[in-house]
Amino acid sequence: MQGVELIKKYFPSLSAEQHRQFAMLANLYQEWNEKINVISRKDIDELYERHVLHALGIAKVVSFADQTRVLDVGTGGGFPGIPLAILFPQCHFHLVDSIGKKIQVVKAVAEGIGLTNVTAQHTRAEEVAQQFDFVVSRAVTQITPFYNWVHGKFLKTNKNAIPNGILYLKGGDITEEFATLNRKYIVYSLPDYFEELFFETKKVLFIPIK
Question: What pLDDT sits at residue 39?
């Protein structure tokens, strides 16, 4: 199963508008990837499984309450931020990356599918001035420097079923890397939610800030 049907398999309550937006991603990323390589060539044909659905693994951990503010650090071409923004249209997503060409793609894709709840900024995480309920990312670096970049960027009040914190998509063995963090974290294994083999070692790591 591929395309938007794969998304509907796990998120069957998509609205017509969400279905339209998810369906448009394939052509937009194909076109932009030919100009600016933001997704590996071997992965572009697996866009919905390896990028869109993978991003939505975060939505299996928490269903963001309306008005939740989310920072996506090192978003690349817009993952996990753009799929999450489609799924949660009443939340705001701020996507940042230190590479300007990637932010160009993010802005074009968001505009192309009519997303109004996304802003994108060419900057480093350390330089973001706003505060958020959650920070999301797809394993852009080791967790300890990442935590140091973002730990001061959280709102004090919680509005979701889990407290404010970091939601980090990661694959493979995390034991050694996370031993350096010296903070409590919770592991959510994506095979508990998705049956495709791609997710066999994939996880969402939740690090509460409080």
Answer: 81
Total domains present in the chain: 1
192, two tokens: 């508990």
| Residue 194: φ, ψ to 5° | -125, 135
CA atoms 196, 197, 200, 203: torsion sign: negative
Residue 1's pLDDT is 67
Residues 6+ apart with CB under 8 A from 38: 29, 32, 76, 77, 101, 102, 105
Domain residues for 97? 4-208
State the amino acid at position 17 in one-letter form.
E
The CATH number of the domain holding residue 84 is 3.40.50.150
Q: In the 3-class helix/strand/coil scheme, how is 71-98 assigned residue by residue?
A: EEECCCCCCCHHHHHHHCCCCEEEEEEC
DSSP notation for 178-210: HHTT-S--EEEEGGGT--SGGGTTEEEEEEE--
For the chain of 210 residues, list the mean pLDDT of each consecutive stretch of 10: 91 97 95 84 86 98 98 96 98 97 96 98 96 94 92 96 97 90 94 97 94
